[in-house]
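Justification of resources, computational component.

The compute hours requested in this renewal are based largely on the per-chain cost of generating structure records like the one below. Each record pairs the submitted sequence with a full structure-token output. That output is archived, and it is also reused by downstream analysis tasks.
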Amino acid sequence: MAAQCCCRKAPGAEAAPARPPPEPPPALDVASASSAQLFHLLHLQLGLELRPEARELAGCLVLELCARRPAPRALVLDAHPALRLHSAAFRRAPTTAAAAPDLPCAFAFAAPGPGPPPPPLPAFPEAPGAEPACSPLAFRVDPFTDYGSSLTVTLPPELPAHQPFQVILRYTSTDAPAIWWLEPELTYGHEKPFVFTQGHSVCNRSFFPCFDTPAVKCTYSAVVKSGVPQAPSGVQVLMSATRSTYVEEEGVYRFHMEHPVPAYLVALVAGDLQPADIGPRSRVWAEPCLLSTATSKLSGVVEQWLSAAERLYGPYMWGRYDIVFLPPSFPIVAMENPCLTFIISSILESDEFLIIDVIHEVAHSWFGNAVTNATWEEMWLSEGLATYAQRRITTETYGAAFTCLETAFRLDALHRQMKLLGEDSPVSKLQAKLEPGVNPSHLMNLFTYEKGYCFVYYLSQLCGDPQRFDDFLRAYVEKYKFTSVVAQDLLDSFLSFFPELKEQSVDCRAGLEFERWLNATGPPLAEPDLSQGSSLTRPVETLFQLWTAEPLDQVAASASTIDISKWRTFQTALFLDRLLDGSPLPQEVVTSLSKCYSSLLDSMNAEIRIRWLQLVVRNDYYPDLHRVRRFLESQMSRMYTIPLYEDLCTGALKPFALEVFYQTQGQLHPNLRRTIQQILSQGLGPGVELAAEPSTERDTGADTPALLLSDEAPGSAISLRDVNVSA
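The structure output for this chain reads:
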């Protein structure tokens, strides 16, 4: 059998680490319907067939698990209405499974023929003696929430505790929120179909039945057959796995993740992707027309970031760190899938945002992937710590001034969100309460990132030395790696590591109690000292004051010696954000700003251009509307279209928005098209819906990360500009 390595270590290159002893039951998760507390999940195996023409995935899932207590009546898994379960079966694990529970099985894929082919069939490796037979199991699917269902599988009676067994589920998934099928026209190359998955927070229950909670982790393996011609001339398949091979004779890809991960970090992408090495343990994957740009921007620097992170927080434990650039339909900026970061290609033109976003995902390798929040109600344990680590890495590689500038930019956005929501908003708590039925993605907001960061920064200041705090975080990762934690685990570890602080009762300081940090609404109780960034932030403040002085000294503002063409992207973005906060501005101010900066800003990256164009729209500045049209005609990404449509629809420019949308909707993913239609429909009266161009694509109604907080309608005051859309 000829096996060509396509991205990672060859199978068997390293022995799998010894499996840890059984863990205590996972934390309760209100977002999961599963019976995860009754079982210990050892390993999961997936046989997947991609069927792009039908926009369907056919799967066979083999769960290897054991009961924590004798005789459980049923196994309950998270599922989704998009999943159609064909069969369920039980198999007692062979005696060899106890020693090697992740021994892979093979999968048989149906040959093409009339009618829809069945899902793959498992073929288990031969074991000494008679191979355990599979017996069918009864199952039922019940409603759970609007983002999922519960799948109950009846188990054989008198099942012993701690005895490994397997449950085999064969299914098909159509129009699943986790699986994004793209026609060739929605890719950069316009030649081949593309598919990717996005599991965060609770979408992967539509990819495969699972314990869809961050409290449960296991290793996994997968065999994937693509429904289109294979590499190198066809579609390349990648997964978030430590080992990956393409078996040419079988036309399948094999993947293995040797470290335990939660279900939401199982990720797949397939498309016209080509690789290029950018470091000793990193490569980028991108469509051919983007590969040289991606390589030139990241060659060498990713290794610098990984090395800096290792100096701070210990060895990188995932083997490779690869990056795949996805088409503009990717619904967020980036996702920290282990070994294989997903990132939107649109960010390539904005160098500083690319740097920060990739470093943030690098930081997740320690905080989020290795040590994970046990419930979505404490998402800050991943995002706040990853943001802190990201800024330690940027300080090590780019200096404190740049880090302080980026922090000031993000904290500005946090306070903007606070103004819009009010200081008593429950989503501003670090330990946010997730009510039953509410999608956890509604809790993903700037408080998770920036208020969480401020708390972690405050802890670092308590110990008086950033290096000592780095040592603590290194010990914390070493203690909890490959497990899921709650806030008390972090805080208890902190006080144990610094016993002198425990003696001083720092957790109970008036006004700064740890409990208050976690459960008080409103802004952070303390913010970092950003004075080291004053050389970069002071010119921004000076120019902003010149342009917003009353009355405006037009000569002084226009003749300012501050040259924004030499500014960093974050400086210009911060300046424009502050002007946006003050909009609408006096018309003479907008006119003068346009004369001074419009042509220059129009030549800059998309992160700058969208902010200037939002100024144009919010101030009804008609002379520059042609730039808005041109921008929307060239963009297919949520992050660069929705903010403008939201602003256009709040005033007199709605007819203009409708005109541009009708001209450009054919180039948008159906999910994005639907969202923009909802924005444009606001105020048209009950029952009025916008007509859309006929499309061969199905609208999956995908459960994308909630960029609007709570259940606000599109077009509300909180736009994508006001939230962090990196995962």
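The chain is about 35% helix and 20% strand. The longest strand covers residues 39-51.
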